[in-house]
Amino acid sequence: MRKLLLTVSLMLVAGMAMAQHIYDVIQMGAKGDGVTDDAVALQRAIDRCSSEGGGQVLLRGGHTFMTGPVQLKSNVDLHIEPTAVLLANPDERIYHLSAFGKNEGEGMMWLYADDAQNISITGKGTIHGNGVAFMGAELDDSYELKPVTTFDPRPHVLTLNGVRNLTVRDVTIRDGAYWTLHLVGCDGAVIDGINLLNNLKIRNGDGIDIDHSRNVRISNCLITSGDDCICLKNRRETERYGSCHDIVVTNCVMTSRSCAIKIGSENMDSIYNVLFDNCIIKASNRGLGIQNRDEGTVTDVVFSNIILDCRLWSDVWWGKAEPIYVTSYPRANGNHKDANWRFPKGQVEGRCGQVSRIFFNHIIATSENGCFIGGDTPDKVSDIHFDHVTLNLKKITSYPSGIYDKRPCKGEGFVRDKVYGLFVEQASRLTLEGFNVSHEGIDYGGTCNQQLK
Question: What is the pTM for the complete model shown?
Answer without folding.
Answer: 0.94
